[in-house]
Amino acid sequence: MAGRRTNLSLLAASLLALITGVGAFIVGTPAGRWVIVSHGVAALAIVALTPWKSVVAKRGMSRRRRGRGLSLGLTFVTVGTIATGVILVVGGTDRVGPFTTMQLHVSLGLLMISLTLLHTLQRPVQPRSSDLSRRSFLRAGGLLAAAGGLWLSIEAVLDAIGARGGDRRFTGSHFVASPEDVPVTQWINDRVQHLDPASHRVMVGAEQVTVEEVAQGGDVVQATLDCTGGWYTTQEWSGTLLARLLGDMSGESVVVRSATGYWRRFPMDEASGLLLATHMAGRPLTDGHGGPLRLVAPGRRGYWWVKWVDTIEADDQPAWWQPPLPTA
Question: Is the terminal CB of the chain with fewer CB neighbours within 10 Å at N or C?
Answer without folding.
Answer: C
